[in-house]
Amino acid sequence: MNKQLGFLHNSEKCVGCRGCEMACKNLYQTDISQRWRQVFQIDENAYPLPSRMFISIGCNHCSEPQCMKVCPVGAYTKRDDGIVIHDDNRCIGCRLCVMACPYGRPQFNSVINIVQKCNLCYQRVDKGEKPACVASCVAGALELVQINSSLDAKTGVLKTLPGLPSPSITNPSIRFVGPKQGKQVRRD
Amino acid sequence: MPEKHYHVCPRNCYDTCSIISTTVNGVLVSIEGNPAHDYTKGKLCPKAMNDIQKVYNPSRIRYPMRQRQRFSGNWERMSWDEALDMIAQKIIDSKKHDGNTLSLALNKYSGNFGALHNAMEWLFSGMGPTTRAVGSPCWSAGVDAQTYDFGKFFCSEPREMGHAKLLWLWGVNPAWTAVHQMPIIFDAMDRGSKVICFDTYLSDTAARSHRFIQVKPGTDGLLALAMCKVLCEENLMDDKLYDYTLGLVEFIDYLTNSIDLTEAAEITGVKAEIIRELAIEYGQTCPACIWVGFGLQRYTNGGQTLRAIDALGALAGHIGEKGGGVHYGHFETWKFAGAGLPEQQNRQLNINRFAREALACDKPPLRVLWLSGRNPLAQDADLKHWHRLIQQLELIVINDLFLTKSAQAADIFLPATTHYEHWDLNSSYWHYWVGINEPAINPVGEAKSDLEIAWNLSAKLNRFEKGSCSFPTSGSERETALKQLGPDMLRMLGLNTPEEILDRPIKAKFPPTAWENHEFVTPSKRYEFQSSRALAAGLPALPVFEPALLPSKETPLRLLTPHHSMMINSQSYQDALSDYYDLYINPRLLENYGLKIGETAEIWNEYASLQVKVKVDMSLPEDVVIIYQQAIEQRAQARNALLNSNLSDMGDVAAGGKGLAINETFVSLRKLTPSERSF
Questions:
Q1: Class of the B557-676 domain?
Q2: What is the pTM of this model?
């Protein structure tokens, strides 16, 4: 497979507004329990000064998707462009994928008793549009990119951030531009 | 077939986004930003993106209801006819009893800022002189301060900020409260502009700035005056100041005689050499822009703080500069035509002390209270006064979407429509856009727009007693919305007919830079360091430092309650509400009080006590604690129980009344024994 779509998240620009989370919910009108995309604050202890930095994570459409590996009914497929699709109609709700994903992205929906996850808005992508989360980002912190060696060769592009599982488990299709800290003149 | 409609987000928010909705077979299915808007650029915030959940929320109230006993929660469905009969009868009876209509009170504010939500005010004006909540809980001190300095309250187009080489964000957290400003700030940073954030705590915006300056709460005005003094000492003042300002000599005298850098450093918590360094950089960089938020004027010296910051901008010659200036907000695009009703001699009560002042009213006392776009029991100070007032009132009506904390006190609940179900017209207090809001779906349940409620009640009143309300009894919502664009507004927007706004939102044709040619509208037509209007209002003529209230021994911690990114005041957009607030404190405070992270503790003062979960914020000083504005479950005690109605120093001249000095709330903290903890 030579194509792999994925996300580039810029923690310098992400203000943690959760617009991406809610854009996804707005488009798919998902159940309250579902957060296919989710914004997390990066562990403050990882940096020398107090920080207010965030990462936004949907499905990472991994090169080696563990969800697909463990699914007993073949509900998962990986497209040629790298998007990992979950087929709601095949899913039996066994939740093996929920346990297998180190990022907690497949989520069990107890209303309809199946697992659901981000399918990278493949219907939009096929029409040449951006996924809802990317299109909604006010600060321009989230991009849809091709994950390849030339991206990884760019200065400042990181494969992981403090607090995330090791990328060696699934080889996730997400890259980061790490947070930068300003000078703080504090009263302490 | 999917249909598209235009909307404007009506929340009390800087951004006032232009929205396009999609409906299928009369059902709202999704919303998106309108790309034809150069400020919001087709993007929305998470609050708006939860709108469909809000519109069809199972807990939304769909029918008029009555509660036989207040706070009982025993609501019964009633028809609109019954509800309006009851209200109209009570109004007529009260009027007969008192011989006037002053016992009828309206307390309305910003639950929905659309122009047609003034219908409630029109309805009351139609009845005669009534009692009204006036002023604002928010920005009053700053509005008056800028009115004294510039002549009116106005600021540059917000995208102009992108031209600044030096950008000071002072007590403002756009990352959470004006998210569309962030790309403008980031783009400026990418082009090499320097961004400095002044605040009392490390906000999300401060964390993304080049430099964060932590100021002791309530001392920002002194910091600005100290920097003014440095500008004088270093000879960094605009050399044309004598041409366009008034009172410069007096102001410099004041700085020379009354401001001492060492003392200012002590009081503000910012070292003297840093004050000097900042002032010199501000004086030497062009263009340099300051954006002042609303938080730093919510003090008893808030107006003076804003006047001091304006003076700093003026002294350095940054007022009227492209990409410079002191941004705060504006009200220029809000000149709606209204309903053409006569001005009444209303009994005006400050919205921030409404209950206190209402209790003092007699001849006649308040009998009927109508709450619209308001949730005072979850937001206002003086809760004890509120509860006494509720006991005195003979009828409480609320129109809203949900059973809010305040609705628990009501006798009658009238279901309101959302901005997807009615016509409206909306302006921003930040950017220059004005937009029409179309209905996309039929009202949910039996909900009615404020305008329709006002027409219907007027019809009832006139049926009971002819001539008892001069507000129309019917009409067209669409025409009423378009009529709000009178000749002034049409000229401002460059339109020939109001109908043109149906095609797209329109941006007012103002020059993008405020006070470009130093054409101020003060009495002297100059920038007024020395304001005769301030003097006439009983204030010092010059911007001066007056200390804010300080914590006492009994209540040593200042409680700040900044806005949260998922919330506007008590309007919540979270799916699941918590039973308690998180209290953020300095880690050393945690140690001093023997507390653990996540432990339940109590904060209290003379007004109330509140159990909270303790969390740590490394950036907080030891004398400041934070509860972010978050909605909690109805059964839980709301944080406003801790508030007293201290007022800001300014607000009477242009804002309708003084603001609430909410940042002067002090509390004590206590560890609880396991048996004392409620959660």
A1: mainly beta
A2: 0.95
